Amino acid sequence: MIASARRSFAIAGATFTELARLRVFYVLILFALVLIFSATFLARISFQQELQVTRDIALGAIDFFLSLLAIVATAQLLPRDLEDRVVYSILAKPVRRFEYLLGKFFGALALLAASLVVMSILCLIVLHFREAAALRSAQQQLAPLGAEQVAVATRAIHIAGVNPVFFSALAFTLLKTAVLVAITLAVSSFATSSIFTISALAMVFLIGHLEGIARDYWLSEHAVGWVTRAFLAVIVFVFPDFEAFNLSDQLAGSALLAAPLLLKTGLLALFYIVSYLIVAVAIFSQREL
Question: DSSP string covering 28-39, please?
Fold first, then answer.
């Protein structure tokens, strides 16, 4: 098992290096950074919630571009290795196919984690300056009303800025992209081109974000029988509800999250990751190379 883990992590390191050299990686990071910077100016449309708007736009930019990077980068792994015949030289060594796929998964996840760290640092810098500006503005405007009003405004600004829920939102974003990487590997295990994989994942991404709304509407408009429940259970199993990883509502109302919510979401992500990796290994193990 130790030797197997070493082989998988060796492939993960090579995968990380390979993905870091892709031009799409730098383009997506550049656009994400530009959009996060633009949040500072877009936030001025709301004078009362500037800091909150800045934070929400920055988190939305991180979530979107990290998800896009997860799909586009991972979709190119298997087709590129097959086209360059790299996979044949790897599997000719004492490397099992599941070790090869696990290496690809952890390599892509390492790239996403590094990207998240870079974008998060920039986001924190932007939020720090916006929070400092909001605090100065609140102190100047509310000082004549008394220290109590200033304290209330200061607490509200701290909650609207960087708090524990903010860091939880970043962690959940990484969990969401890990699920996307696992699904992309599962589709790539039988797909013949990266274009097909990207198109399929774009549909999964869209369905995953609309699934909760469609499910609530269906349950409210139709009688709930066992057939309906079975159908919805299949849909939920195949298409993850990506809105479960969105903490926008919690960010707006609190500075803390309940432990059961964190545990439930983490177990949900783990379930989908393990399930789709098992599917990917099962299909790729039977594929003729």
Answer: HHHHHHHHHHHH
